[in-house]
C-alpha cells in the first residue's frame, strides 16, 4: 500500500495521465492484475493476459457506459445505454500490456515492488492496436519517417541523466547484456557542451537537458541517425550517461520499397522487411554482389542502427555496396563487443509488406521476398527464413475497420 500511497501523493496536484501511467508501471499492480510477464501471441502461442486491460477501461478510466458531458448515459436506438467497449477492445488493449517485466538486478521484490516495471522488447506485441473509437493508438503523432535528419540534435529533443556507470541500467541491455552508447569527450561538440552543462570550465551534468535550439553535428555525429545513450567524459575524467528521450512518433506496418534486414548473420539468418527510411539495422558492406561473400560491419558504436541511406553511404565511402547476402562477417565487433550474430544488418535486396486477412476480419502483416540458402557452405549456417511473427498464418493478428462495401 505504501507504494500506491506514494504514487497518489506525487500526483495529487498533477494530471490524470501521469497518475495512470505510474499505476500501470508499478510492480504491485502488475502482480495483482497478472499482466507482468505477459507476452505477445507470436512469442507465447497464446492470447495476452486481459486482466489489467479490462480493469483499466472499466474501473480506472472511461467506465462501462458512454456518457454525455453532464454525466448522463448516451442511449442507443433501442433506448439502452451504449457500452464503451467490447470483447475485441479488451483483446486489443491487452496486447498493449505485453512485454512488461520486473526490474532486474535485485532492485525489486515480490511484495514491495520498489521500482517501476521494465519493458522487454522481444516479448512485446508490436502490431497495431485499435482504440475505442475505431482509430489506432499512435494516431495524431507524426510518422517516424517524417522526423528530421539528426533528430537527436534538434530543438526540443531531451536527454535524461542516468548516472556515472552502467551498473543500474539493466533495462537498456540486449539479450546478451550489452548496452549501446555513443562516447563523446570532445568539448568542441555542441552536444557534448549541452550535456556537460559547463560552469567555470567544469561539467555540472544537469539531470535533464532539453535542447533549446537545434545543434550542428560534430565529427561522428554527422554520420549517425540515432544516439540512444550518450557517454560524456570531461577533461577531469568524470563520466556521465544520458539517455535520449526519443520524439514520440508512429511507425506503420505497411510500406513500399522495403529492404531486407537480417538478424543473426551469418548463422541464424532470420529475415524481416525493413522500411529503408527508418534507423532499423546496421551497415554490412561487401565488395561484390555475391550472396555468399564476407561482409564487413561498419558501426560507430555497439548495436547502432541506421537508415538504409546511411548504410549505403558508409559502404560507398569504402568503395563497397550493401551486401546482397553473406556467409561470414568481419569487423563485427564494431557493432557488438563479443557476438557477430546478435545484431541486425541491412541487405541490398528488396522485399515487400503484404496483408493476410483472417476469416474473422482481422489481419496480419506478412513480409515477403526472395530468400538465400548458404547452408551448403557451412553446416552452422541456417537457410534464410522470415521471422515467424511476420510469416503467413502467424499469431500476430490485429483488428482493422472495414468499409461497408468491403
Structure description:
This protein has helices at 2-10, 16-24, 27-32, 41-44, 51-60, 87-96, 190-196, 308-316; strands at 100-101, 118-119, 158-161, 182-184, 208-210, 229-233, 239-245, 258-263, 270-274, 284-286, 294-297, 321-322, 328-330, 344-357, 363-368, 385-386, 397-398. The chain has 406 residues and is α+β, with helices and mostly antiparallel strands. It has three domains: 2-123, no CATH class; 148-245, no CATH class; 258-398, no CATH class. The strands form four sheets. A six-stranded mixed β-sheet has the order 16-9-8-14-15-17, with no helix packed on it. Strands 4-6-7-3-5 form a five-stranded mixed β-sheet, with helices on one face. A hairpin with a 5-residue loop joins strand 14 (344-357) and strand 15. Residues 106-114 have low confidence and may be disordered.
The figure for the number of domains is 3
Q: Could you tell me how far the N terminus lies from the C terminus, measured between alpha carbons in angstroms?
A: 51 Å
Helix content: 10-25%
SSE order: HHHHHHEEEEHEEEEEEEHEEEEEE
* pLDDT averaged over residues: 90
Number of strands: 17
Question: In terms of per-residue confidence, which ranges show pLDDT below 50 for 5 or more consecutive residues?
Answer: 106-114
Q: Biggest β-sheet: count, sense, barrel?
A: 6 strands, mixed
Structural class: alpha+beta
Q: How large is the radius of gyration?
A: 24 Å
Dominant shape? globular
The count of helical stretches stands at 8
Fraction of residues in β-strands: 15-25%
Biggest sheet strand line-up: 16-9-8-14-15-17
Amino acid at each position: 500500500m505504501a507504494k500506491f500511497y506514494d504514487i497518489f501523493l506525487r500526483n495529487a496536484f498533477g494530471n490524470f495521465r501521469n497518475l495512470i501511467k505510474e499505476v500501470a508501471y508499478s510492480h504491485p499492480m502488475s502482480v495483482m492484475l497478472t499482466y507482468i510477464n505477459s507476452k505477445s501471441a507470436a512469442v507465447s502461442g497464446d492470447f495476452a493476459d486481459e486482466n489489467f486491460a479490462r480493469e483499466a477501461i472499466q474501473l480506472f478510466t472511461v467506465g462501462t457506459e458512454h456518457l454525455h458531458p453532464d454525466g448522463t448515459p448516451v442511449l442507443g436506438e433501442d433506448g439502452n445505454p451504449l457500452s464503451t467497449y467490447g470483447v475485441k477492445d479488451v483483446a486489443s488493449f491487452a496486447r498493449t500490456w505485453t512485454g512488461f517485466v520486473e526490474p532486474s538486478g535485485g532492485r525489486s521484490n515480490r511484495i514491495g515492488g520498489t521500482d517501476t516495471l521494465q519493458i522487454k522488447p522481444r516479448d512485446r506485441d508490436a502490431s497495431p492496436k485499435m482504440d475505442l473509437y475505431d482509430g489506432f493508438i499512435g494516431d495524431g503523432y507524426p510518422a517516424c519517417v517524417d522526423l528530421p535528419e539528426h533528430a537527436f540534435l534538434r530543438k526540443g529533443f531531451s536527454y535524461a541523466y542516468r548516472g556515472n556507470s552502467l551498473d543500474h541500467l539493466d533495462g537498456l541491455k540486449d539479450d546478451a547484456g550489452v548496452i549501446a552508447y555513443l562516447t563523446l569527450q570532445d568539448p568542441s561538440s555542441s552536444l557534448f557542451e549541452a550535456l556537460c552543462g559547463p560552469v567555470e570550465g567544469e561539467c555540472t551534468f544537469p539531470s535533464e537537458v532539453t535542447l533549446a535550439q537545434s545543434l550542428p553535428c560534430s565529427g561522428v555525429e554527422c554520420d549517425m541517425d540515432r544516439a540512444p545513450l550518450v557517454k560524456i567524459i570531461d577533461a577531469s575524467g568524470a563520466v556521465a550517461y544520458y539517455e535520449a528521450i526519443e520524439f514520440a512518433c508512429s511507425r506503420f506496418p505497411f510500406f513500399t520499397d522495403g529492404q531486407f534486414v537480417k538478424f543473426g548473420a551469418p548463422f541464424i539468418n532470420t529475415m524481416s522487411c525493413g522500411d529503408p527510411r527508418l534507423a532499423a539495422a546496421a551497415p554490412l558492406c561487401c565488395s561484390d554482389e555475391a550472396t555468399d561473400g564476407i561482409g564487413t560491419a561498419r558501426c560507430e558504436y555497439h548495436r547502432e542502427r541506421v537508415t538504409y541511406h546511411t548504410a549505403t553511404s558508409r559502404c560507398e565511402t569504402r568503395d563497397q555496396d550493401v551486401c546482397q547476402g553473406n556467409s561470414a562477417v568481419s569487423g563485427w565487433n564494431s557493432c557488438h563487443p563479443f557476438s557477430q550474430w546478435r545484431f541486425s544488418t541491412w541487405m541490398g535486396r528488396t522485399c515487400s509488406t503484404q496483408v493476410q486477412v483472417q476469416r474473422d476480419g482481422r489481419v496480419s502483416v506478412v513480409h515477403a521476398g526472395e530468400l538465400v540458402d548458404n547452408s551448403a557452405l557451412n553446416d552452422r549456417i541456417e537457410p534464410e527464413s522470415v521471422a515467424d511473427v511476420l510469416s503467413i498464418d502467424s499469431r500476430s493478428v490485429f483488428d482493422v475497420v472495414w468499409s461497408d462495401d468491403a
